[in-house]
Amino acid sequence: MPSKRTPIPGPTAKKAKIAAGRRKAQDLAEVDFGKLPGYIGYQLRQAQSAVFRDLARTLRETGVTPGEISLLTMLKGNPGIKSITLTRIYQLDKATLSLSVKALAKRGLIVSTRDAADNRYRALELTSEGRAMLQRVTRSIESQERAMDDVLKPGERGRLLDLLNRISRAFAR
Amino acid sequence: MPSKRTPIPGPTAKKAKIAAGRRKAQDLAEVDFGKLPGYIGYQLRQAQSAVFRDLARTLRETGVTPGEISLLTMLKGNPGIKSITLTRIYQLDKATLSLSVKALAKRGLIVSTRDAADNRYRALELTSEGRAMLQRVTRSIESQERAMDDVLKPGERGRLLDLLNRISRAFAR
DNA sequence: TATTGTTATACTCTATAACTATA
DNA sequence: TATAGTTATAGAGTATAACAATA
Asked: Which segments within chain B are labelled E, that is strand?
């Protein structure tokens, strides 16, 4: 004899769940965001965090972060580049970059060798493993970029890049 | 009798410093960014971090972070809002939001009171100190937004907000 | 003295897991 | 059982300070 309340969600439970979902959506629709949506700073943060979250999901099993992809790409285009140059580009403290370099080196993706001309420097380079990894994660990046193109009309990608670039430069010191 | 090397930088030292500055700028100009500048994800991160850094500088003495400003604004427009609603909006774990709420409450900017109808909920509200603080930091936000308008042509703000919004929604799950 | 880089330490933001209280 | 919230803990990512090596 079945009990009045079955552990298997029946039609009633299912309906309740859908109703709860609607109620939540309704709650969110009623929320007043004030002036926030009109702030570029706010929309920038929302977009950046959505994109970052999505990419992190895709990259999870590679163990490479979006920031590390930038570093690997810079090393590919500029073999032998110095840490100090990268700190200037990304406005990072040299201690911060030193840790990233150490982590990438430990995983065998990059090597740092002493500069012959000036022994204070270390020349950073991709290993062949690093090059392979970069190729792999670049595919993820570019598939994400194509997903963005799906919500952009022709010409809008270029306009967005230009606008973002001008905002960056307005606050670069 | 003055030593050969004076601790006050003379014209020679000044020239050397300028030359070093030029050399650095030259180094940076020669860097190959590869495909990075063509990625929306990359430009988004650069812009967001430049804007965030600038705002953090302005807000330093208030002790309020950009994320906390969003929360305070939401509480102003939606007095009595529940934590759980905010976690859905900002895709944050309830534990993360609990810590933010605790920190703001400790500083006397918000209060959380038990909901009479359903005791599981806590209704969040601004205190008068919170309202005053929000007014103060909103001035910083809006002055930063005006600085952005300086690099935007008429109509571009609206277009940028729309583009960012579409990117956010493309990756919201 | 100035520059490059490393290490120790700490702070912020975030998540996961285990928990309590309530429905 | 499900939901709201808290606490403990841990992992990124970042900065500051002190240091060593080199110029």
From this structure: 81-82, 110-114, 122-126
Interface mutation vs chain A, best among B43, B52, B85, most A CBs within 10 Å: B43
Average pLDDT (A14-20) is 41
Contact in structure between A64 and A103 (CB atoms under 8 Å):
no
Give the distance from CA B129 to its chain's centroid: 21
CB-contacts to strand D (7 A): A 7, 20, 65, 67, 91-93, 95-96, 99-100, 118-120; B 82-84, 94-95, 98-99, 101-102, 112, 120-122
pLDDT tens digits, one per residue of A69-126? 999 999 999 999 999 999 999 999 999 999 999 999 999 999 999 888 889 999 999 9
**pTM of the predicted structure, to 2 decimals:** 0.87
Helix orientation angle between A128-149 and B40-59, rounded to the nearest 10 degrees: 90
Q: Percentage of chain A with pLDDT > 70?
A: 85
Contacts B56 to A, Cβ<8 Å? none
Burial of A65 (0-12, 13-18, 19+ CB in 10 A): middle
Side by side, which strands form the sheet with A122-126?
A81-82, A122-126, A110-114
